[in-house]
């Protein structure tokens, strides 16, 4: 994305990077559990605030320049976890 923006954007405003696809915290947590092979129970503390209801950033500026995410969220998590296992985990 960095190389793409260097060659395709010269403005001074910030440019959000994202897939443009919204995912809930629950969906993300379940996806992480699947990727790492966690078989425990996901427990929500409903006594705490929900947080921001929506977190989708507007990445239309970057999309209008022709950029789109090439890696899905799932594949990115898989790649990152694999890298972690190979490089960090003792």
Write a structural description.
- With 90 residues, the protein is mostly helical.
- It has four helices and no strands.
- It has helices spanning 2-8, 25-36, 60-64, 73-87.
- α2 (25-36) packs across α4 (73-87).
- It is extended, with a radius of gyration of 17 Å.
- It starts with a helix and ends with a helix.
A few lines on this structure:
This protein has 90 residues and is mainly alpha-helical.
Please write out the topology.
Blueprint (H helix, E strand, L loop, with lengths): L1 H7 L16 H12 L23 H5 L8 H15 L3
Cα separation of the termini:
31 Å
Fraction of residues in H or I helices: 40-55%
Which structural class do the helices and strands define?
mainly alpha
The oligomeric state is: single chain
Strand content: under 5%
Low-confidence stretches are: none
Largest sheet: none
- How many β strands by DSSP? 0
Overall morphology: extended
InterPro entries: NAD(P)-bd_dom_sf
Protein name: GDP-L-fucose synthase
């Amino acid at each position: 994305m960095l190389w793409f923006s260097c060659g395709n954007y010269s403005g001074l405003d910030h440019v959000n990077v994202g897939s443009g696809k919204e995912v809930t915290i629950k969906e993300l947590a379940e996806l992480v559990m699947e990727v790492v092979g966690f078989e425990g129970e996901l427990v929500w503390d409903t006594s705490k605030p929900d947080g921001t209801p929506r977190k989708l950033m507007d990445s239309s500026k970057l999309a209008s320049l022709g950029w789109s995410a090439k890696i899905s969220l799932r594949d990115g998590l898989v790649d990152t976890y694999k890298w972690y296992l190979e490089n960090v985990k003792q």
